[in-house]
Amino acid sequence: MNLHDYLYYIILPILALSVVLVFVRFLKGPTLSDRVVALDLLITIGIGIIAVYSIISNQPTFLDIAMILALIAFLGTVAFSYYLEKREQND
């Protein structure tokens, strides 16, 4: 079993299953915080899928896209935590 078979038959199905499970948590999340954490995890899993695709297709430029997506996800999480802090101070 070489690297491409391992990526196709083990890693990608695990990532696909994790996307489904996290999306269910995103829909069912009882609080806003649960939904934001699930959305952040969905973006992180998407970054993993982009990285695997970059390895399979031998296109390292996709890793740049994954890095930009990671930075955007980080900024979104920081903005949400700032929003929650301000909301708690107002209540």
Automatic annotation (TrEMBL):
Any one of the GO CC terms: plasma membrane
Annotated TM spans: 6-24, 36-56, 62-84
InterPro entries for the chain: MrpF/PhaF-like
Superkingdom of the organism of origin: Bacteria
Key words, A-Z: Antiport, Cell membrane, Ion transport, Membrane, Transmembrane, Transmembrane helix, Transport
Family classification: Belongs to the CPA3 antiporters (TC 2.A.63) subunit F family.
Protein name per its UniProtKB record: Cation:proton antiporter
